[in-house]
Write a structure and sequence with these properties.
single chain; 319 residues; alpha/beta
Length: 319
């Protein structure tokens, strides 16, 4: 397909991949409809070593969020309501014998490893399945809230280690992953993408952050990632979800100066594609490289906050 470099091209592509009403006029889970019971049973058969890989970064004040014009996100704040020092000091005396600790966490739902809900991005005033943007108000999302995805997030996962395929520790910021890269990586790994799969895209940017010991402009800055044209590839492959080790999955800077985050604008509200961000893929990638097995059981249930437009998660790849 022709290179998309303008808002008009984004609009043309959005229409081509739009799946509104594909699963009926009341649908709120989008591409997760592609994950059938049969596919989940098949995915469970991929567990052979009993090895679990957590794909989440730590949720703490040392996370990647920073002041960025597009959002008001901040790193998670963990506060104690009752502590062990309270016990030692004799403060807890209201109940017989038992002494406890309690805490509270304050955080944006997309502060660390997370899913974007289908109510997170709008296209010309509409979200997934044509629901009006006004349905996300101060009380949250009436339609396409993250709670609609509960019980839906398990199936076959496939790691596309694009950085290793390109023989690099990490892709440079601004590297645009193309459909040809995706096909080439699958061929190199001797695997395939099936209907209803969860694709995990490793750019190596997370490893770069780890090695330099600081986040810098990881959140919202330039990054390697999926180019706009991969939207049509993902649509044709009929995958259930895509996640990556970057802040926003898509390449930055964008190829469209008149449209920021064009890939998001196409795939979430038009395709109904589930998107995961800030996944930690290094340990999984090393294991896949060692045993040359790039498919696994994948599960990453959201926290069912009613009306939320995203959810923190601790995804598992199980081999």
């Amino acid at each position: 397909m022709a290179k998309v470099t303008s808002l008009s091209g984004v609009k043309d592509l959005a229409v081509r991949v739009r799946d509104w009403n594909r699963w009926g006029p009341t649908d709120e889970i989008g591409t997760l409809n592609l994950v059938t019971k049969e596919k989940i049973v098949k995915a469970a058969s991929l567990v052979r070593k009993g090895k679990i890989f957590s794909l989440a970064i730590n949720f703490d004040r040392a996370g990647p969020q920073r002041s960025y014009p597009l959002t008001s996100r901040f790193n998670p704040l963990h506060l104690m309501l009752r502590t062990g020092t309270d016990v030692v000091a004799g403060v807890q005396t209201t109940r017989a014998f038992i002494r406890t600790t309690d805490d509270v966490v304050i955080m944006p739902t997309q502060a660390a490893t997370h899913w974007d809900a289908l109510s997170h991005v709008f296209y010309e005033g509409k979200m997934w399945n044509g629901y009006d943007a006004s349905l996300v108000a101060s009380d949250g999302a009436v339609k396409n809230g993250i709670e609609r995805l509960r019980g839906k997030l398990a199936g076959r996962g496939v790691l596309l280690d694009i950085a290793r395929y390109k023989k690099k520790s990490w892709l440079e910021s601004g590297y645009e992953i193309t459909p040809e890269d995706l096909d080439g990586c699958l061929s190199h790994e001797k695997t395939n993408a099936e209907v209803g799969d969860f694709l995990l895209i490793r750019t190596g940017q997370m490893q770069q952050v780890i090695e330099r010991g600081r986040w810098d402009d990881y959140a919202g800055g330039d990054a390697p990632g999926l180019g706009i044209e991969t939207a049509e590839w993902l649509h044709s492959m009929q995958v259930a979800a895509v996640a990556s080790d970057t802040w926003g999955v898509e390449v930055r800077p964008n190829a469209t100066p008149d449209c920021d985050l064009p890939w998001h604008t196409i795939v979430i509200p038009n395709m109904g594609l589930l998107v995961g961000e800030q996944f930690q893929l290094e340990e999984l990638a090393e294991d896949c490289h060692n045993d040359q097995v790039y498919e696994f059981m994948f599960t990453a249930p959201p926290l069912p906050f009613t009306g939320a437009v995203g959810s923190p998660i601790n995804p598992y790849a199980i081999k």
